[in-house]
């Protein structure tokens, strides 16, 4: 993917509780990556110190804004180029399908590096005026359930494994989910009570 996308610089965290991204990148890139900037390190500070103002830009709706990698139905990873118009319309149509308004509160424990978070999560909220609740930097069933209850979420996003983790969590029976009206997950149709 690094070769196909012609990536010149990669911004990433060095590690999280699950993975050592520096080691994974070293193994995957094999020296083919021009540069990396590890967030929260000296490299990050040096990049910020050496920055310059590029001035205002006026992107066109047809300009590519995002490249998402997917294996789709072929099993072979490929970059899908999303334009500003694609991203805005994806979010807008999801919001319309869920009948979102500015009164909705979306709990989105899904990753922001994936279309689910960065397009369906943020753009649906922006296009409808709904609040976006990000319960934790990474998915944790307990934190997601606590955020739904505390923030009175009306919609919840997730993949089946996330919902299963919540249903199987010992805190599940004690949580108040009465504010929820619907949600979104990949595969099945959009569900909403309004």
Describe the structure.
This protein is 36% helix and 18% strand. The chain is of the alpha/beta class and 194 residues long. The chain folds into two domains: 48 residues, no CATH class; 109 residues, 3-Layer(aba) Sandwich (Rossmann fold). The strands form three sheets. The chain has a five-stranded mixed beta sheet with strand order 6-5-7-8-9, with helices on both faces. Helix 2 links the parallel strand 1 and strand 2. Helix 4 packs across helix 5. The relative contact order is 0.11. The model has no long low-confidence stretch (mean pLDDT 87).
What is shown here, in short?
The protein is of the alpha/beta class. It is built from 7 helices and 9 strands; from the N terminus they run H-E-H-E-H-E-E-H-E-H-E-H-E-H-E-E. The chain has a 5-stranded mixed β-sheet, sandwiched between helices. A two-stranded parallel sheet has the order 1-2. Strands 3-4 form a two-stranded antiparallel sheet.
């Amino acid at each position: 993917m690094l070769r196909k996308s012609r990536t010149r610089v990669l911004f990433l965290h060095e590690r999280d509780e699950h993975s050592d991204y520096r080691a994974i990148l070293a193994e995957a890139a094999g020296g083919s990556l021009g540069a990396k900037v590890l967030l929260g390190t000296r490299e990050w500070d040096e990049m910020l110190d050496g920055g310059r103002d590029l001035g205002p830009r006026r992107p066109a709706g047809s300009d590519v804004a995002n490249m998402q990698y997917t294996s789709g139905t072929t099993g072979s990873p490929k970059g899908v180029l999303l334009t500003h118009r694609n991203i805005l319309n994806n979010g807008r149509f999801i919001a319309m399908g869920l009948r979102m308004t500015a009164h909705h509160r979306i709990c989105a424990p899904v990753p922001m590096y994936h279309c689910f978070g960065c397009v369906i999560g943020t753009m649906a909220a922006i296009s409808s005026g709904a609040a976006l609740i990000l319960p934790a930097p990474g998915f944790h069933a307990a934190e997601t359930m606590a955020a739904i209850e505390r923030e009175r979420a009306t919609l919840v996003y997730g993949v089946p494994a996330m919902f299963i983790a919540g249903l199987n969590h010992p805190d599940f029976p004690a949580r108040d989910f009465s504010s929820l009206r619907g949600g979104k997950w990949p595969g099945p149709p959009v569900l909403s009570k309004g």
